[in-house]
Write a structure and sequence with these properties.
The chain is globular. The strands form 3 sheets. The chain has a 9-stranded mixed β-sheet with strand order 16-15-14-13-7-12-11-8-17, sandwiched between helices. A 6-stranded parallel β-sheet has the order 3-2-1-4-5-6, sandwiched between helices. 34% of the residues lie in helices and 19% in strands. Helix 5 runs parallel beside helix 6 and helix 9 runs parallel beside helix 13. It contains 14 helices and 17 strands. The structure holds NADPH dihydro-nicotinamide-adenine-dinucleotide phosphate and 6-O-phosphono-beta-D-glucopyranose (BG6). The site of 6-O-phosphono-beta-D-glucopyranose (BG6) has 3 residues, from loops. NADPH dihydro-nicotinamide-adenine-dinucleotide phosphate binds next to helix 1.
Length: 521
């Protein structure tokens, strides 16, 4: 099937002005796994200006050439088959490394001199995109050093802009997020700050608004009159990998819910913005977060389940339990799974439960949003001898096998009336071919262009924390209560099933993941 008959409204994007990307924490995992491969792919697609450069900054001692070699190896590992092509020397010549300590003023003064010399040698303005890819403990000190050495206001000494991209996690709770916001806004104006959440860079996440507001079909039904409930599942098969020390201090609520799941929830729940302008879209998202029904202490036990994976099997391979992972405390009480029910208290969603769940080491990797419509009245086809019938479900498959499915009832051909649910399926790969672009490509390009629509605004991050912080405090107070476990490779703890089943509903992933048999799917 070809998607070409559609009316195409292509908003053409300019190429960014010449700029230098400074990656703090350039010796780390994120830089190697995601950032540098994304920059390389943008370069290969001709989406970067001729005079761009990357300066890696970290404490590890390295020459420019050693850094280039590290990058080449990272590309080999993380963009298999695509790295070290004929254009590698051109790309490598734009890579530089600067050793420094994150709180050392002299190191930043030297960085400034280096950036100015680089810009001058390329006859380019001093545009700089600073990317904080370090552990969060040094986010604020780095922002302060950038400010103190005058790099956050390049216009005062040479033409150009300075922007700050900041990784997650953005704080540990509302108070620390507010404090971090205050620190970084001391160095950069809000419109120069790009708080990254890579879920917003995913094509399928961007398509949520297009599906809702570019079609007449769905929006009239997208409310409490027709929607019975909404499910958001973000399931991973991976464990904590090499990130045990970080994850053990975070847990699923901080690592996934506060950011990725809250963005999915607000995109599904928001009202139509009256323009695609970044502030208009984000203001509507904030309203959803502010309308979430608070979960007081007494409600946490019945509306939220936390759990931790035990040993099990994933893809036919035995895997250890969470407490046996490297870098994790053997008596850890950090959750690797969370499921909860929430409500958006407004006119559109009054009384509609939103069930969200996320976990590591689950049976399949699947991120999916299910809009479960109300059943038709129990007469005619939804009554004996035909019914009961499965209600309509619209499933947005965020990943993998990206697409959208709609389940509706059809009459099976033949004598008599036999009604069956049928799934109409749209798949991105079949419609458009190929893999969707990596989220980090889109986000890096947007930051270089100064478009902050797909980044989290300060009030958005604080509204998400305002909802979650009391829950985190309740969980922390209950830390000696038994934390349920689930077998690695399963669909999570039975307590999460019991929570939704108490409401007469079931967890569903609409598209059956390949290896899965049974109820899910
Ligand atoms: P790393 O632990 O690999 O740290 C990155 C670099 O920061 C290191 O190479 C190191 O460089 C420096 N560093 C490490 N520890 C410290 C410290 N205590 N004080 C100062 N510098 C330190 O982190 P990641 O690359 O995994 O993550 C970077 C950021 O990105 C984090 O905020 C993380 O939460 C976020 N993130 C990471 C993801 C991933 O998949 N890795 C996914 C999503 C977000 P040097 O010692 O040379 O200075
Ligand atoms: C990151 C989390 O933000 O998102 C990880 O820190 C998680 O723990 C990852 O594995 C999931 O991202 P994706 O794109 O694989 O769904």
């Amino acid at each position: 099937m070809v998607a070409g008959n559609a009316q195409e409204a292509v908003v053409r994007r300019d190429s960014p002005e010449p700029f230098t990307l400074v990656i703090f924490g350039a010796s780390g995992d994120l830089a190697a796994r995601k950032l540098l491969p994304a920059v390389y792919r943008l370069f290969r697609q001709g989406l970067l200006p001729e005079q761009f450069a990357v300066v890696g900054f970290a404490r590890t001692a390295m020459t420019d050439d050693a850094f280039r070699e590290e990058v080449r190896q990272a590309l080999d590992r993380f963009t298999p088959g695509k790295a070290a092509a004929a254009d590698w020397p051109q790309f490598a010549s734009r890579l530089f490394y600067h050793r420094g300590d994150y709180s050392d003023a002299a190191g930043f003064a030297a960085l400034r001199a280096r950036l100015e010399a680089l810009a001058a040698s390329r006859h380019a303005p001093c545009n700089t995109l600073f990317y904080l890819a370090t552990p969060p403990t040094v986010f604020a000190p780095i922002a302060e050093q950038i400010r103190a050495c005058g790099l956050s206001a390049p216009g005062e000494r040479c033409d150009g802009w300075a922007r700050l991209v900041i990784e997650k996690p953005f704080g540990r709770d509302l108070a620390s997020a507010r404090a971090l916001n205050a620190h970084i806004r001391n160095a950069f104006a809000e419109d120069r700050i790009f708080r990254i959440d890579h879920y917003l860079g995913k094509e399928t996440v961007q398509n949520i608004l297009v599906l809702r507001f570019a079609n007449a079909l769905f929006e009239p039904l997208w409310n409490h009159k027709y929607v019975d409930h909404v499910q958001i599942t973000v399931a991973e098969t991976v464990g904590v990998e090499q990130r045990g020390p970080y994850y053990d201090q975070a847990g699923a609520l901080r690592d996934m819910v506060q950011n990725h799941l809250m963005h999915l929830l607000s995109l599904v729940g928001m009202e139509a913005p009256n323009s695609v302008d970044s502030d208009t879209v984000r203001s509507e998202k904030v309203k959803v977060l502010k309308a979430l029904r608070p979960m007081p202490r007494a409600c946490v036990a019945s509306n939220l389940v936390r759990a931790q994976y035990g040993a099990g099997e994933v893809a036919g391979q035995p895997v250890p339990g969470y407490r046996a992972e490297p870098g994790v405390a053997p008596d850890s009480i950090t959750e690797t799974y969370v499921a909860f029910k929430t409500f958006i208290e407004n006119w559109r969603w009054a009384g509609v439960p939103f069930y969200l769940r996320t976990g590591k080491r689950l049976a399949a990797r699947v991120t999916e949003i299910g809009i479960h419509f109300k059943p038709v009245p129990q007469v005619l086809f939804n009554a004996a001898p035909f019914g009961p019938m499965a209600p309509n479900v619209l499933a947005l498959r965020i990943q993998p096998n990206e697409g959208i499915s709609l389940q509706f009832q059809v009459k099976r051909p033949g004598a008599g009336v036999r009604i069956e649910p049928f799934r109409m399926d749209f798949g991105y790969a079949a419609a458009f071919g190929g893999e969707p672009p990596e989220a980090y490509e889109r986000l890096l390009l947007d930051a270089a262009l100064g478009d902050s629509t797909l980044f989290t605004r300060s009030d958005e991050v604080e509204a998400a924390w305002a909802f979650l912080t009391p829950i985190l405090y309740t969980c922390a107070e209950d830390q000696f209560a038994a934390l349920p476990t689930y077998r690695a490779g399963s669909w999570g703890p039975k307590e999460a099933d019991a929570m939704i089943e108490a409401d007469g509903r079931q967890w569903t992933v609409f598209k059956r993941p390949a290896a899965r048999k049974g109820r899910e799917g």
